[in-house]
Amino acid sequence: MADPLLITLLPSADVDLGRWLLSHYEISYTECPHAPIFHVLALKSWGVGADDYPLFVRGGDKFGGIEKLLPELEAAAPAALKLLPDPDQNPAQYKQVDELQHYARWKMGSDVVNWSYWNLLKYKSVVWPSITTQVPVYEKLTCLVAFRVVRALMYRGLKLDQSVANASLDRIHQGWDKFDALLSDGREYLVGDRLSFADLALATSGGPMILAQGYHGMLPNHALCPVFMQQTYQELRQRPTGRFIQRIYDQYRLPQLLCV
Q1: How do residues 231-250 score in pLDDT, each as one tens digit?
Q2: What's the pTM?
Q3: In this structure, what are the phi and psi dihedrals at residue 56, rounded to the nearest 5 degrees?
């Protein structure tokens, strides 16, 4: 039987979270990455919505997005691999994990997307591996000849401009402050005494802000980024949250090639 498929927008943080979940739960798969804009067409061809990525296809079942994928994988996982506290036996920890993952992904993570895309898309050579690695040839050729059009569509779709990027960076720093404070007591994990979904959510959502080693979405080469971005990456990397993110990648992200 063929491996399940993971339909992805290559650099997305939730996509890297999906890859990590499948690796953590020891599920093999084949990834089908797509360039921005084209990923929407790919998802529609599978009969799901534009935001249903990563899309996990196994047999006749389709699970679009982390909110559908996680419960499916978690339900079948042995106790040693579970990433969510039991909501009946430990409701307080379950609630904390859910609140932290939601903040990391949907609040701070959205600002990471805004700041990163607004700035990196100005530099085609810097962002090129992140949007075209292993995508179908016609997508790569289209991006090659119509990169400015793709960029304009992304800017318009995300409603990005300099003021949005500036405000997003301010909120990213606020997010770092929040997690720095949480980690100030020396805890090893965000919640409890074992790895949880909150740890992976923070690692993948914050990973692009430190160009985390181990992130599988083809993050840019630090040396090729504009100096002001390098300075931001370096500053955030050295803070407790940045060090936590890299440690989680180092300790819990198994070595893995892009599974295409």
Answers
A1: 999 999 999 999 999 999 99
A2: 0.95
A3: -100, 120
DSSP for 127-158 reads HHHHHHTT--HHHHHHHHHSHHHHHHHHHHHH
Q: Residues 161, 10, 160, CA angle at the centre, nearest 5°? A: 5
Reading the block at residue 102, the tokens are 């939601």
List all residues 6 or more positions away from 249 whose beta carbon is below 8 Å from its beta carbon.
203, 207, 212, 213, 214, 215
pLDDT in tens, 138-182: 999 999 999 999 999 999 999 999 999 999 999 999 999 999 999
For the CA atoms of 71, 134, 137, 127, the dihedral, rounded to the nearest 10 degrees, stands at: 100
Other C-beta atoms within 10 Å of 47: how many?
10
Of 165, 26, 126, 30, the residue nearest 82 (C-alpha): 26
d(C-alpha 19, C-alpha 249), whole Å: 13
What is the pLDDT averaged over residues 179-204?
A: 98
Closest CA to 254 of 131, 81, 116, 91: 81
Using a 10 angstrom Cβ sphere, with 0-12 exposed, 13-18 middle and 19 or more buried, the burial of residue 56 is buried
Runs of H (alpha helix) within the chain: 13-24, 38-45, 66-76, 91-102, 109-120, 124-132, 137-145, 147-158, 162-183, 197-206, 227-238, 240-252
